[in-house]
Amino acid sequence: MTATRADRIGLLVLPGLAYLGLIYALPLFLLLLKSFRDATGAFSVAEFVQIFGDPLQRSIMARTLRVAFLVTLLALVIAWPTAIVMRRAKGGWLSLFLVAMILPMSLGVVVKAFAWSILFRTNGFINQAMMALGLTDAPVRLLFTETALVIGAANVFLPFMVLPIYAVLQQQDPNLPDAAATLGAGPYQRFFKVILPLALPGVVAGCAFVFSMAVSMYVIPSLIIGERQQTVAMQIARSFLFLRNEQLGSSLSTILLLIAVSVVLGSSWLAARLGARQ
Amino acid sequence: MLNRPAHEQRAASPAMTDERYLDVVAVRKSFKGVTVMDGMNFRVARGELVSLLGPSGCGKTTLLRIVAGLMQADDGSVILAGRNISSLPPHKRNISVVFQNYALFPHLSVAENVAFGLRARGMSKADAVQPVREALALVRMQDFADRSIGGLSGGQQQRIAVARALVVRPDLLLLDEPFSALDRKLRETMQVELKSLLRDRGITGIFVTHDQEEAMGVSDRIAVMNAGRIEQFADPSTLYASPATPFVMDFVGLSTRLSGRVTGQEGARVVVETALGTLRAPGGLATGTPVLIGVRPELIRLEGGAGMNRVDLVLEDVAILGSKTMLQGRPDGGDRLLCELAGIRNGKARGDAISFHWAVEDTLIYDASAEVTT
Ligand SMILES: Nc1ncnc2c1ncn2[C@@H]1O[C@H](COP(=O)(O)OP(=O)(O)OP(=O)(O)O)[C@@H](O)[C@H]1O
Ligand SMILES: [Mg+2]
Question: Whose CA is nearest to atom 9 of ligand 1?
Fold first, then answer.
């Protein structure tokens, strides 16, 4: 009885699966297929060999991974204290935080990117502040640099780091750190032995979100550093739109996809392992 | 607080630190301007198991948290074994706490939970194995060492929490309603186990509960708390037989209460006029004083002799509870009167006219003019 009912409830996923399959998986599959073919349509990995042999492509890939890593790190460093404060906030304050996290998501990246360019300009706010504080004598070039990209991207992806961490912290029994304290654990031990391990699934999920988004971001780097310093996603767009090199584009897409998939699978494996004992 | 002479305040002799093993002195605490505790004094002797009994919100948890260092008092001090620990953080106090929801670490196994305190104190993993095994054996959970916390029942989690708290050999053990989530049977077993466990090891403990039977069963002394104050601090039998205030009388055990006014004095007895007639109680109070008369249901009999208090009324309810029978009467517009008789008593029914008798010495009397809240 219950089994058939569960079976029938299972049917509810069909529309979702069909939608994803048609709109998402099928074109992706075709793209993947293309990347393993040469111009004549025969199976070949020549394109990959060529990409990995090209120093320019290698440096673009290295930059993409480096930027994604730094974005994830920066987002994590900012998100952790934010999530801790949100965990303690109540009522109106909590709503304010949640709105502050979610509202910017509805603001287009283009608008935000232009807003930052005001901050990052040579005579912009950041430079003026740094000079006023005596941190630097002459204005530092920020716009069109990797630093600006990392800061800007971390800002855009911050909610995707804060929300999963907030969610796990919020579920944590507030008595646990107190219990640890009465058992003789000082602040450091409480953090590393209790608070952090319990929050780790959320941290892993947040990092996976942010990393996979940062590694494949296109709009943000195009607006902040432009063509000067390419990322893999920009290369993909370029090869399809300007170079008309579908071989290169699809192969780069495959590489990006593999990175994203391995991050997602790796992190869910890690999260499952971490969560298994709880 | 009385001003004690300076030489006495130093509390040098061992006997004295034994008497005042834990000394909570003039502790004040308020939350956002609302005073929860206004000059609390509380003293526990070494090796004693004391209960904090009181209604919800009276400040029991607040007091425990202040003693454990999890909460800072606004004023006053906490002294443990002659040492002022008021400004020590919780991890330096060596006071273990068993939390109401157990607060076991969900990411650690049973053995790792128990080992937590030892490891936090710098003991190596290998050295912790033996004491952890002993602690688990103590609560009869040795077979569960490698289990994860998630799969344990409430009673098992409770035992682990006790083992975790005891394995570090605390100077003081605080238990905040540790059995409230357990069913009645298990609760009673755990009460007996805990009591002997603490007694055998000479551990001083404070046990918070709002269940008066649990408090009476478990502890050497009971502090009855009400609205951030201790109303009475005494051993269970004193508390029951001579409650210091109407609040204690009501909170500890069932009781019947009648209000009246003093009309005279007969030697060591006061004569009180109530809606149900003239009653007598031991003591001396000025004529005209409004008073509250109380009597324990099991001290009431259905027949009595001369010189006993007597009240005539109509039975409102008869409840046969097996080991006892409860008779309840409510005279016209009056308070409820309860009589408890041992065993099963048939032959009495709702609507019967009946009289309750009890000895003058068993009558509790309180000056109601001093009573602000009842
Ligand atoms: N962190 C806090 N902020 C504000 N008020 C608090 C806080 N902690 C306790 N209180 C208030 O202090 C009073 C005493 O609370 P406490 O938790 O000590 O009561 P309790 O006797 O343990 O009650 P219970 O039996 O329900 O556990 C209550 O009125 C409570 O609302
Ligand atoms: Mg409480």
Answer: B62
Mean pLDDT for B160-165 is 93
Determine which of A117-126, A198-207, B37-46, B303-312 has the lowest per-residue pLDDT on average: A117-126
In chain B, the residue whose alpha carbon lies closest to the alpha carbon of A178 is B70
Query: Which residues in chain B belong to E strands, given as ranges?
Result: 22-31, 34-44, 49-53, 75-80, 83-84, 95-98, 172-176, 205-209, 221-226, 229-234, 256-266, 269-274, 277-282, 290-295, 309-320, 324-329, 337-342, 353-358, 364-367
Find where tokens 């046969």 sit: B320
Protein residue whose Cα sits closest to atom 7 of ligand 1:
B31
Do both B310 and B209 map to the same domain?
A: no
Mutating to test ligand 1, I would choose from B35, B36, B67 the residue with most ligand atoms within 8 A of its C-beta, which is B36
Query: Which pLDDT score is estimated for B14?
Result: 60
Partner-chain contact A277 B94, CB within 8 Å: no
Give residue for tokens 């003093």: B262
Q: Domain A42-277: give its CATH code.
A: 1.10.3720.10
User: Is there a contact between B175 and B60 (Cβ–Cβ < 8 Å)?
Assistant: no
Ligand 1 in reach of B36 Cβ (< 6 A): yes
- Chain A nearest-CA residue for B97: A182
**Domain identity same for B44 and B179:** yes
DSSP 3-state assignment of B6?
A: helix
Domain ranges of chain A: 1-35, 42-277
The CATH number of the domain where B194 resides is what?
Answer: 3.40.50.300
- B169 pLDDT more than 80: yes
Residue B264: CATH number of its domain: 2.40.50.100
Instruction: Please report the ipTM that was assigned to this predicted complex.
Output: 0.80
Ligand nearest to the CA of B63: 1
- Pairing state between β B324-329 and B337-342: antiparallel
Q: How far is the CA of A134 from the centre of ligand 2 (A)?
A: 54
Other C-beta atoms closer than 10 Å to the C-beta of B193 total: 16
B238 and B330 in a single domain? The answer is: no
pLDDT at A4: 63
Number of the ligand 1 atom closest to the C-alpha atom of B63: 18
* Interchain proximity B101–A180, CB inside 8 Å: no
* Ligand 1 contact, B62 CB (< 6 A): yes
Q: How far apart are CA B88 and CA B78, in angstroms?
A: 10
The boundaries of the domain holding residue B24 are 6-246
Q: What is the tally of structural domains in chain B?
A: 2
In this prediction, residue B17 has a pLDDT band, given cuts at 50, 70 and 90, of low
- B55: Cβ below 6 Å to ligand 1? no
Given B90, B101, B116, which is nearest A175 (Cβ)?
B101
Tell me how far apart the alpha carbons of residues B321 and B317 are, in angstroms, rounded to a whole number: 13
Helix (H, G, I), strand (E, B) or coil at B41: strand
Maximal CA-CA distance, chain B: 76
CA distance A209 to A161: 7
Is B58 touching ligand 1 by the criterion CB < 6 Å? yes
On whether the CB atoms of residues B212 and B333 are closer than 8 A, the answer is no
Say which residues have a Cβ less than 8 Å from residue B326's Cβ, sequence separation at least 6.
B297, B317, B318, B319, B338, B339, B340, B341
Query: One-letter amino acid identity for B300?
Result: I
Q: Reply yes or no on whether the pLDDT at B359 is more than 50.
A: yes
Pocket test residue of B51, B62, B65, B214 for ligand 1, highest count of atoms within 8 A of CB: B62
Closest to B202 (Cα-Cα) out of B74, B46, B57, B79: B46
Distance B65 CA to ligand 2 centre (A): 10
Looking at per-residue confidence, does A68 or B345 come out higher?
A68
